[in-house]
Amino acid sequence: MPTTKKKKTTNQASTVGNISVSVSDAFLLHFLSGLGLAVSFWIASNIYSINLISDPIQTLRLLCIIQIPISILLHSIFRHNPKQCSYWKAVVRGVVGLPVGAILMAFGAVVLGAPVGIQFMMKTLYWSFLMSAFTFVPAVCVYGSSWMDWQRLFAYTKPIGVLDYIICIPAHGTLIGAWLGAWPMPLDWERPWQEWPICVSYGAIVGYMVGMVVSMVFVLVLGRGQSHSKRE
Amino acid sequence: MSSSSSSSSLTCTKLTAWTLTAVFLQILGLSLFVFGFFPIKPTLSGVSGPESYQPPKCDSRQDHIHKTMLPSDQLRSLYKEISRIPSSFDRLILMVVDGLPAEFVLGKDDQPPLKARMEAMPYTQSLLSDGTAIGYHAKAAPPTVTMPRLKAMVSGAIGGFLDVAFNFNTQALLDDNLLGQLNSIGWKMVIHGDETWIKLFPGMFTRHDGVSSFFVKDTVEVDHNVSRHIEAELMDSNWDLLILHYLGLDHVGHIGGRNSVLMTPKLKEMDEVIKRIHLTISDDHHGQTLLVVVSDHGMTDSGNHGGSSYEETDSLALFIGLGYKAPDYASATCNAVFQVDIAATLALLFGVPIPKNNVGVVIAETFNSLTEDHQLRALELNSWQLLRLLRAQLPGLLCGASSCNEFNYARNLDISEFKGSVEEYLYCIFLKAASLHDYWRSMKGQSVRSNSSNDFHDTVAAYNKFLRTSSEWLSRTATNKPLGLLAFGVATMLISSVMFLSIQFWLNKEVHIRQRQYLPVSDKYSYNWHLDDSFVLLMILFLVFSMGSSSMVEEEQYTLHYMTCTFFLIFLRKSCQSLHGKQSPILFNSNKGRQFNYFRTFSIVLVLIFGRILRGWHQGGVNWVHFPDISKWLEKAGPHTTKSLQMVSGLLVIILSFFSLYMLRIKRMFLLVVQISLLVSGILVLLHIMSYQEQTLTGSSNSSNLVAQTIYTLLIITVMVVVLGSPWVMPVSSSTTYSSAEGPSVTSFLVDQDTWCPFLGLRASLYLIGWTYAVCWCLLQLLLQKPTNAMPTLLLLLQVLASMFYFSIGNPRHKQWVEVAALYFLGLAGHFSLGNTNTLATIDVAGAFIGISSHSTLFSGILMFIITYASPLLCLLSLTIYISMKDMNYLLASQNALFGHILQMMIGIPCVVPLSLNSVILTAFTIILLLMRNHLFVWSVFSPKYLYVCAATVSVYIGLSIVAATVTYTCVVFLFRQNMLNSTGNSSIIRT
């Protein structure tokens, strides 16, 4: 497969040109994202005394307000090709990419059976923004519109290097978590959390956290491997 | 074939033999399981006679004392004498209102019915409030369809679940039943109404006017045909039993649901009938007449029935003129009994033995006008009958000298607290009742009034305890299952399932070997395990596990849609891999490939969007069925919107067929003929939609039948001509008359321009046949389906096409079996978007009588199957198009490939994949059903679903055998023609 081989080499070259991402950077990034989630849940329950089940729209909005800036600002630090692309350009990229990702997420959700209607519109909107912040925004901030990188991350799921893992695995975790989270929805348990998009949001958040943990594990393993290879 | 692959290959005959064996094993296992699982109720043969007025003995042989057949009048007086119950009635009018929920008359949960309902039946309500009538919620057992319910009412026995399958094939009721008993004492019987009665009791009625329940859309004539006889019959004196079976209300429900605008007039009409009858019989000179109004089953909110929800099982039993007045409205209406109780009650009221297999319990209030002695006698007779039935299943019941000492101390011992076998328990509670009865009898002479009344109530309570307990026990054991048979059936199905899977595994391996041989650069296609492959397995796993939960079965449409959509999202991801041509195919490298990749991605997006629209068309399921959906909106929007949508879909199907046939640029004349015939049938379908759909409310007219029949004939002829003719018409590959300029253009995208395809003619004719199948099937569905289902039919076709387009152009990106599996799942998901659910209630009965002039069980059954399995069969039939469009150059590259191998490669995977997927689902669900046999919902949720799974298996068999036969026939014809051509070519060469 000559083409892929070529691609691999270019990618490796490009990672060299990147802002190097150390294990501690990755840890900090994930830690801050997780902290953001924790803080927003804490604010929701202790200051506004709301939660996802009782007030899904408000809680999702709060989550978006806290999580979107964190995601954009943090990931823009690790932008690809930092010489040609300033930090603020990456931030702008993230801001522009956010609604695009939200549209894609909303499309996916509706196609998979999310209810359509005026009473669901706000819920779907905030949910898709949150999903976009977890999945789409990191990739946009880092890679911009480089189709090849997107393809590698999302169409092939073949992350190379620390940065790829940081972006790719939490995003996939979010998607898989949301997908699994939708399963209880049609059941007749008559629980309030079966409503769209509560359990899907829970699934996505749990998936995101699991994704971050897994990506940390990968990064640690990878980092050790790299240090080994450097020594050699 | 090189030796390396032929050694590992399985030949065509071997493949066929293995597949057929597996199919045969599956059918065998399935039928064994079905007959083992669905109860064939344990019955006593013979008819109750005079012996039923004597206590049962230990040995059943001692029972038969009178074997002489007495003439009917002597028998009548004999019964009268030995029953020791004076019969207070001479005649019975049984009025059956099909599908009337008891809620309409008696209200629900101790509340009176809605005001509108009460006003609809003023006379009946006045009877209830002054106590002349007593009404009961008579709980019907599922399946709530007419024939099993009628059987239950007259025989008191609970039928097997499979009775529903025979509902459209009524046969004479041979078991002991009320009508037979009444006939034996010389009653003259008259029936007006549903002809099911005449079929159940052939030759028993002196007069009858049967109406067929099959013209479901007629709500007026069916009832008029009954009511017109009432006047004359009421004047007449030469009948003892008059049955009036009104079907109109059920038809109203089928058309418009519970709250149909036609419902109130229909209830008024029924009330009018009750009034007429009651007024006549109350000042009767023919003797005492009892009027019993019953319904066979209820209906859901949408007017369907068949399942076991409260709405469907809530049937009515209304006794008018018992001679006993209910003290107040509540006691006249808030009573719950079982539907089977009607048989025992009527038998005792009219002085005939209770039917042998009755499990019902006499309704005590109906005897309140009799003396206490007679009331106890009735209970005693019922107990004896049940004891006889129990003795058949518990042989030692009456023989054991068991000690029932416990009962002397504990008054209300429950069966769970009793230490001992069931038979001892039942016998003890019977003995207790019997001894109380004896005591009461002995005390009667001594006239201690206050004590006597107390004793009487104790005795009644004891009898009722025995009757209820044994009745429940009997109904439960009606579902006893022969475990050995079931295990054998399941094992056979498991074996066949494993066989299918291994065949599929071999085939995949074979295809892989072939592709590696003929496609030099095929690493793209390598035997690696991809996400889409594993997702198919995951999907099957999820489906199987979700079927273990009753609410997941009820809401299966969500699961299937979710899984299928995810499947296509994975395809979307995969198609993104080839965007920008980064991984563009090397073999067929052309500019076209690049632009096709966008089309391919777009077609997947289309499939997804259409799928979502289809999901929104019918909410489906059980729990969320009331949520808004497109079909409800269309019904609200009125017939014009629906009709215009129907017209649009019809036109689009026709245009689509024209477009697709136009792509096939060879043999224009033949195609023109096909096109014209498709056009004509399409126009006829549109005509039928335009002019006849409204008439169906007033009954089907002759001309509408004629049009429908013409459409059927035309479609069948078109399909036959195309299937049989096109292989002979299409050019054979090596024909020299066939210039290469117009040659490789089956469609612009079908075949790569550069590749000379030797089997072009074969593929062209398969393409033509496949399209004819699909278009004819869609036209048929447009004719038969409910008006709101026209658009989903079109969307399904478009979905199939879009996915076909995605699969066939460009480089093969998925393994063939994954593609076939995707089509199969598309069909399954589409099944639910046509409004089907896993309850029997949603089967569209109304459509099954379009174009059928005389009642024919066979034809309406076939039409019903066609309507219900529209979507899976469409997908299976379109596999023909898939086979023709699939790029098979790799296997045709060697001109001298054996015929068997070509055939195997062409139809092997498309046939084996649906078979094996279906076999996995079938076997898994069989095991689940076996595990769930004691589940609360086994009869209401799992068994109907199982029937659906079985029918889906049949549809897979039918669809695949059509596909396989077509492809085989086409291949054989082409082979033959090629051989002919070669031999003539050779001879001409020799001659020159």
TrEMBL record, chain A:
<keyword id="KW-0337">GPI-anchor biosynthesis</keyword>
<protein>
    <recommendedName>
        <fullName>Glycosylphosphatidylinositol anchor biosynthesis protein 11</fullName>
    </recommendedName>
</protein>
<dbReference type="GO" id="GO:0005789">
    <property type="term" value="C:endoplasmic reticulum membrane"/>
</dbReference>
<dbReference type="GO" id="GO:0006506">
    <property type="term" value="P:GPI anchor biosynthetic process"/>
</dbReference>
<keyword id="KW-0256">Endoplasmic reticulum</keyword>
<keyword id="KW-0812">Transmembrane</keyword>
<feature type="transmembrane region" description="Helical">
    <location>
        <begin position="60"/>
        <end position="78"/>
    </location>
</feature>
<feature type="transmembrane region" description="Helical">
    <location>
        <begin position="27"/>
        <end position="48"/>
    </location>
</feature>
<feature type="transmembrane region" description="Helical">
    <location>
        <begin position="126"/>
        <end position="150"/>
    </location>
</feature>
<dbReference type="InterPro" id="IPR009580">
    <property type="entry name" value="GPI_biosynthesis_protein_Pig-F"/>
</dbReference>
<keyword id="KW-0472">Membrane</keyword>
<dbReference type="Pfam" id="PF06699">
    <property type="entry name" value="PIG-F"/>
</dbReference>
<comment type="pathway">
    <text>Glycolipid biosynthesis; glycosylphosphatidylinositol-anchor biosynthesis.</text>
</comment>
<feature type="transmembrane region" description="Helical">
    <location>
        <begin position="162"/>
        <end position="182"/>
    </location>
</feature>
<feature type="transmembrane region" description="Helical">
    <location>
        <begin position="90"/>
        <end position="114"/>
    </location>
</feature>
<feature type="transmembrane region" description="Helical">
    <location>
        <begin position="202"/>
        <end position="222"/>
    </location>
</feature>
<keyword id="KW-1133">Transmembrane helix</keyword>
UniProtKB/TrEMBL annotation, chain B:
<dbReference type="GO" id="GO:0051267">
    <property type="term" value="F:CP2 mannose-ethanolamine phosphotransferase activity"/>
</dbReference>
<dbReference type="InterPro" id="IPR017850">
    <property type="entry name" value="Alkaline_phosphatase_core_sf"/>
</dbReference>
<keyword id="KW-0812">Transmembrane</keyword>
<keyword id="KW-0325">Glycoprotein</keyword>
<keyword id="KW-1133">Transmembrane helix</keyword>
<keyword id="KW-0808">Transferase</keyword>
<keyword id="KW-0337">GPI-anchor biosynthesis</keyword>
<comment type="pathway">
    <text>Glycolipid biosynthesis; glycosylphosphatidylinositol-anchor biosynthesis.</text>
</comment>
<feature type="transmembrane region" description="Helical">
    <location>
        <begin position="946"/>
        <end position="976"/>
    </location>
</feature>
<feature type="transmembrane region" description="Helical">
    <location>
        <begin position="905"/>
        <end position="931"/>
    </location>
</feature>
<dbReference type="Pfam" id="PF01663">
    <property type="entry name" value="Phosphodiest"/>
</dbReference>
<dbReference type="InterPro" id="IPR002591">
    <property type="entry name" value="Phosphodiest/P_Trfase"/>
</dbReference>
<protein>
    <recommendedName>
        <fullName>GPI ethanolamine phosphate transferase 2 C-terminal domain-containing protein</fullName>
    </recommendedName>
</protein>
<dbReference type="GO" id="GO:0005789">
    <property type="term" value="C:endoplasmic reticulum membrane"/>
</dbReference>
<dbReference type="InterPro" id="IPR039527">
    <property type="entry name" value="PIGG/GPI7"/>
</dbReference>
<dbReference type="GO" id="GO:0006506">
    <property type="term" value="P:GPI anchor biosynthetic process"/>
</dbReference>
<feature type="transmembrane region" description="Helical">
    <location>
        <begin position="597"/>
        <end position="614"/>
    </location>
</feature>
<comment type="similarity">
    <text>Belongs to the PIGG/PIGN/PIGO family. PIGG subfamily.</text>
</comment>
<feature type="transmembrane region" description="Helical">
    <location>
        <begin position="821"/>
        <end position="852"/>
    </location>
</feature>
<feature type="transmembrane region" description="Helical">
    <location>
        <begin position="710"/>
        <end position="730"/>
    </location>
</feature>
<feature type="transmembrane region" description="Helical">
    <location>
        <begin position="858"/>
        <end position="884"/>
    </location>
</feature>
<dbReference type="Pfam" id="PF19316">
    <property type="entry name" value="PIGO_PIGG"/>
</dbReference>
